[in-house]
Amino acid sequence: MKIISWNMGxxxxxxxxxxxxxxALGWLRAQEPDVAxxxxxxxxxxxxxxxxxxxxxxxxxxxxxxxxxxxxxxRLEPIGVVIEGALVAGARARVTGDDFILVSAHVLTGERQExxxxxxxxxxxxxxxxxxxxxxxxxNASLHWPKYGTWFFDPMxxxxxxxTRPQPQEVQSYWGRGSMSIIQDDHVFVDRVTKAAVARxxxxxxxxxxxxxxxxxxxxxxxxxD
Length: 226
What we know:
The chain has one domain (about 1-225): Deoxyribonuclease I, Chain A, CATH 3.60.10. It is α+β, with helices and mostly antiparallel strands. The termini are close together. Helices cover about 25% and strands about 30% of the residues. It has a six-stranded mixed sheet, with helices on one face. It has a six-stranded mixed sheet with strand order 5-6-7-8-10-9. The longest helix has 16 residues, at about 115-130.
């Protein structure tokens, strides 16, 4: 199973990354992921993806961009998820022979981020309980700041969310304004069975010249080998 989680940097209809969005989407399609968890994707330019089922949730009513779950499956069942301080697209689908709950998340920054992260961990842990799952996105949370361990990473781990990153050190995934070399905002979490399959596969954050031109975040690419 190939998973790509990516904040595509096009939360607004205008802006520096918007002009590259079609090229970035072409690259994404060419990777042929089984699961794509996307944030800040423009829906009109993403409407058709041959062989993939897509569920999208706008940033706010009437907006033309937001989060999406895309899956290579015959059937996708959207799950309605409302979490204060976060935008979430959730769905159930059968992927590579198993039933999964899939979540694309974008946790917003601000004074109430601690509560938003706690809300997310609590809500989604109940949502995926007893299921195979892939939960990924831009959490605006990095181990570079110890408070995020207490706020987010420790509660997620205690709730059974396995971080797919194979090493303890983070890898830079964000290079926008004010970024630092070790900031990793983007993460993919899975259940224990899927984590074992990821350990036999691969994990990477892509940050080549093209990826940096297309978005202020790099795609997280995870391959799980059963």
